UniProtKB/TrEMBL annotation:
Low complexity composition-biased segments: 21-38
MF annotations from Gene Ontology: acetolactate synthase activity; acetolactate synthase regulator activity
Protein name as annotated: acetolactate synthase
Presence of keyword Cytoplasm: no
Native organism taxonomy: Bacteria, Pseudomonadati, Pseudomonadota, Alphaproteobacteria, Rhodospirillales
Biased composition (Basic residues): 10-20
Record key words, sorted: Amino-acid biosynthesis, Branched-chain amino acid biosynthesis, Transferase
Similarity annotation: Belongs to the acetolactate synthase small subunit family.
Gene3D superfamilies in UniProt: 3.30.70.260, ACT-like. Chain A, domain 2
Source organism of the structure: Pararhodospirillum photometricum DSM 122
An example Gene Ontology CC term for this record: cytosol
Coiled coil: none
InterPro entries reported in the protein's UniProt record: Acetalactate_synth_ssu, Acetolactate_synth/TF_NikR_C, Acetolactate_synth_ssu_C, ACT-like_dom_sf, ACT_dom, AHAS_ACT, AHAS_small-like_ACT
Length: 213
């Protein structure tokens, strides 16, 4: 019987067919293979900008009011950069708290709303957004030095219109009144001249015009 073996026919080396490679799937949207699709960059909303605000709070002049206001800020993690309080109406027993804080518009609105919920609070005004206002701060700055540094401190004080309220052979105490930026600049210039101590009152502010705060 003739053999069916054909010497011209070759068998695969391993005797098993190799699997066919599956082509990579084409990205959707017609992007070329291997290309990176652009990722949109989400820009931060403008309402996330942190700004400094001066807030005036009219309260009853009674014990514990200031502690409640400070407790509201500390309990929620809000920062108080400056705070002043004094009686403004002796007949009605009213005091005014002027505080400077910073945050996003949403945070500032939360602060004003929560201050307004306190029982002894009569009125909350955001002077930064409600209109033009006048703000001032007083600072006492002590500078110790002799020789050229002593002369230079007097020259700078004259430029900033700060006046000497105490003087010894080795030190001066200057009183300066103005905006916070002015006082910060004066203190920075006094540091290399022998600045030893600073006391600041905090910001006092009032709205311009004939309308009350």
């Amino acid at each position: 019987m003739p053999s069916s073996f054909d010497p011209q026919r070759r068998m695969p080396r391993s005797g098993v067919r190799r699997p066919r490679a599956i082509p990579a799937a084409r990205p959707r949207g017609g992007a070329p293979r291997g290309g990176n699709r652009p990722v949109p960059i989400l820009s931060q909303a403008s309402d996330q900008d942190i700004a400094c605000h001066t807030i005036s709070v009219l309260v009853d002049n009674e014990a514990g009011v200031l502690a409640r206001v400070i407790g509201l800020f500390s309990g929620r993690g809000y920062n108080i950069e400056s705070l002043t309080v004094a009686e403004v109406n002796a007949q009605e027993h009213l005091s005014r708290i002027t505080l400077v804080t910073s945050g996003t518009p949403m945070i500032i609105e939360q602060i004003k709303a929560q201050l307004g919920r306190l029982v002894p609070v009569h009125k909350v005004s955001d002077l930064t957004v409600e209109g033009p206002h006048v703000s001032r701060e007083l600072a006492l700055v002590k500078v110790a030095g002799t020789g050229e540094k002593r002369v230079e401190s007097l020259r700078i004080a004259d430029i900033f219109r700060a006046r000497v309220v105490d003087s010894t052979n080795e030190s001066f105490v200057f009183e300066i009144v103005g905006k916070t930026e002015k006082i910060n600049a004066f203190i920075a210039l006094m540091e290399p001249l022998g600045l030893t101590d600073v006391t600041r009152t905090g910001v006092a502010a009032i709205a311009r015009g004939c309308d009350p705060i």
